[in-house]
Amino acid sequence: QIQAVIFDLDGVITDTAEYHYQAWGMIAKELGLPFTREFNENLKGVSRIASLELLLGQAATPHTYSPEEMEEMATRKNEFYQQLIQQVTPADVLPGISELLAELKAHGVKTGIASASKNAFTVIRLLGMEKDFGVIVDAAKLARNKPDPEVFLTAADALGVDPQFCVGVEDAVAGVEAIKAAGMFAVYISLQENMSIADMNLNHTAELNYSELNQQFAA
Ligand code: B16
Ligand code: MG
């Protein structure tokens, strides 16, 4: 039996992954770097500064930036992102999520958030979901980023549930790797591809439902 479900935030609870994409796109444009949706997949679940390093690696002729310049670019990206998320409202919770949360609650299953974003609390507040999760763990308090399991293990620990009874839900490759490294059951949500290490592959959050999840978990 599933005892807890731990959700990624950006791209699973709401489509802020799109705003991360747009904000990095503005930085890429300023720097004259190529930037595609396909490349952006590599940035999902990846920390702000590591995302910047990947983006700068796209340059045809590599340029070395000082730590101060890197910090400045990362801060600018975050300012763009913070402007974009001002438009987030409770109507932006992705399809199927509220229904699943209600089912989990009815069955006594605990819930948590495991996000690589330092803006996680702001997004949760804009969605009006402060009361919907037993724990919210974000990057601000952690030493290691996804694919390290730390964020998922910290959430499980706070909920008092052994990782083997936890399900993790992710839209990022690094995130699914983190869930598996934590010893949890992994659900990967992606329109583009499946992941062989995921225990369940779905195209969309609307396909999430408690009985199907429990059946696959027990199988
Ligand atoms: P921030 P998640 C991740 O959030 C995003 O997927 C990733 O694109 C972003 O770079 C990272 O948060 C850091 O976000 O710049 O707001 O600290 O998907 O783990 O909820
Ligand atoms: Mg995500």
Automatic annotation (TrEMBL):
Gene3D superfamilies for this protein: HAD superfamily/HAD-like, Putative phosphatase, domain 2
Pfam family name, one: Hydrolase
Molecular-function annotations in GO: beta-phosphoglucomutase activity
Catalytic activity annotation: beta-D-glucose 1-phosphate = beta-D-glucose 6-phosphate
Database matches in SUPFAM superfamilies: HAD-like (SSF56784)
Cofactor(s) needed for function: Mg(2+)
Main enzyme class: isomerase
Record keywords: Carbohydrate metabolism, Isomerase, Magnesium, Metal-binding, Phosphoprotein
The protein's Enzyme Commission number: 5.4.2.6
Family: Belongs to the HAD-like hydrolase superfamily. CbbY/CbbZ/Gph/YieH family.
Protein name: Beta-phosphoglucomutase
